[in-house]
Write a structure and sequence with these properties.
The protein has 432 residues and is an alpha/beta fold. It folds into 2 domains: 316 residues, Adenylosuccinate Synthetase, Chain A, domain 3 (Alpha-Beta Complex); 108 residues, Adenylosuccinate Synthetase, subunit A, domain 2, CATH 1.10.300.10. It has 13 helices and 20 strands. Strand 3 and strand 4 form a beta hairpin. The longest helix has 27 residues. It is globular. Bound molecules: guanosine-5'-diphosphate and magnesium ion (MG).
């Protein structure tokens, strides 16, 4: 089982980071596949908490080669900061244990402004993190964006690429600022961004990133040939997938298993395990449909027990019960082989737990997810809660109700649960 993948099945923040860190114990390579600095992956190890945005969650393990893959978009400033922060925390970040693909796209300062501009124009706000991730992907698709490799080309060539990439932004800003002046929008005006500014941005971070930029394919080839364990780290989550998720309230990449494999540069037949990570309830950051949402005392309690505030933005996360219909929907699309369930400790604090096992939709009961998920009402089955997982390290030791909760999920989805999180620390992981 050499290549394994870890992806989220809900709306993000399921605890992928902790699962990746755990699986990385036996790996030689961990490769982050998609998304940008909008991701926030938390690992609690050796009694310390680490929050990664761009760096793979295995960076804490110096013996593992962490790779940022071609499907990722990277903000140079955030990448340089994160490397610095890790080093300050005595985490090794050297060429030996960290590489960035030369094909990884660069997020520029104007991408963040563009993010704000689009949100201003949109009637239905997506609620993006404002980090310029979607707008980097957009320019990638428009085929004007720059990649890591471009930082090291001839200065004149680099400048003309930056110039080309800035054109659309500055045209849009001129018009947006006119409309702001006319009072159509109340936003602050958008800055014109010059070629020099973005060239300086490249020069400022180029040196600190230089040693890490490499052609990753020969490295992956070698590891695959030797049957070494490679973990592909997904970001965001299935229901934020631009093709299969809650479009348009989605992210700009494809966090399903195929998109994640593509972002890493590893073909689907090589991926032997696809581990889907879920929380024992549901949380969502940003707007979009949420069938089991609890905008009430129950939601508030779970938010507080689970510390449900975004790693990237600090925003309170929207909270709801576990929706098994939307998780089962991902099973074949992502070819799942097992599940990791986190926050079993958190949900056990409720005495009675609702689990969504079907939807009421257009007067009928259904067990699949229609395109207009927002028009579905949940059908719940109530399970017994009220358990305490403190100090428990094996499945057998778990209270009967907690075990039944896990069995219920396994039976409904039809795949085995591999890991259970009963706390944020790596030691609070139960192997089933
Ligand atoms: P990711 O984006 O999927 O990597 O997840 P995040 O790190 O953004 O969010 C998960 C949050 O839950 C983090 O604060 C984790 O430390 C925490 N966490 C993960 N698993 C568990 C668990 O089993 N129990 C508790 N109480 N916290 C957990
Ligand atoms: Mg997160």
């Amino acid at each position: 089982m050499a290549v394994k993948m870890i992806i989220g099945l809900q709306y993000g923040d399921e605890g992928k980071g902790r699962a990746v860190h755990y699986e990385a114990k036996n790996a030689s390579i961990v490769i982050r596949a998609t998304g940008g600095s909008n991701a926030g992956h938390t690992v609690v190890a050796n009694g310390k908490k680490y929050a990664m945005h761009l760096l793979p969650s295995a960076i804490i393990r110096p013996e593992v080669l962490s790779i940022i893959g071609p499907g990722v978009v990277a903000d140079l400033e955030i990448l340089a900061q994160e490397i610095q922060q890790m080093r300050e925390a005595n985490i090794k970040v050297e060429r030996q244990n960290f590489i960035v693909s030369e094909r990884t796209h660069i997020t520029f300062p104007h991408h963040k402004q563009l993010d704000r501009l689009y949100e201003m124009l949109k009637a239905n706000k997506v609620g993006t993190t404002g980090r310029g991730v979607g707008t980097t992907y957009e320019e990638k698709a428009r085929r004007t964006n720059l990649r890591m490799h471009d930082l090291f080309i001839e200065p004149s060539e680099l400048k003309s690429k930056i110039q080309e990439n800035l054109k659309v932004y500055n045209v849009l800003v001129a018009e947006a600022n006119k409309q702001i002046e006319q009072g159509i929008y109340t936003e602050e005006k958008f800055p014109i961004i010059t070629l020099e500014e973005e060239y300086e941005y490249c020069m400022k971070y180029k040196e600190s990133i230089k040693e890490f930029v490499a052609d990753i394919y020969p490295i992956l080839d070698k590891a695959i040939q030797k049957d070494e364990v490679i973990i592909i780290e997904g970001a965001q989550s299935f229901w934020l997938d631009n093709d299969h998720g809650d479009y348009p309230m989605t992210t700009s990449s494809n966090p399903n298993a195929s998109g994640t494999a593509s972002g890493a540069g590893i073909g689907p037949t090589l991926v032997k395990e696809v581990i889907g990570v879920i929380k024992a309830y549901t949380s969502r950051v940003g707007n979009g449909p949420f069938v089991t949402e609890q905008e009430n005392e129950i939601g508030d309690c779970i938010r507080n027990w689970g510390h449900e505030y975004g790693t990237t933005t600090g925003r309170p996360r929207r909270i709801g019960f576990l929706d098994l219909v939307m998780i089962k929907h991902t099973k074949n699309i992502s070819g799942l082989t097992s599940l990791c369930i986190n926050h079993l400790d958190t949900i056990g604090k409720l005495d009675k737990i609702n689990v969504c096992i079907g939807y009421k939709y257009k007067g009928k009961e259904i067990k699949h997810v229609p395109i207009d998920k927002q028009n579905c009402q949940p059908i719940y089955q109530q399970l017994k809660g009220g358990w305490n997982t403190e100090g428990i390290t094996s499945f057998e030791e778990l209270p009967k109700e907690a075990q039944e909760y896990i069995y219920f999920i396994e039976k409904y989805i039809g795949i085995p649960v591999k890991y259970i999180g009963v706390g944020a620390d790596e030691k609070q992981t139960i192997i089933k």
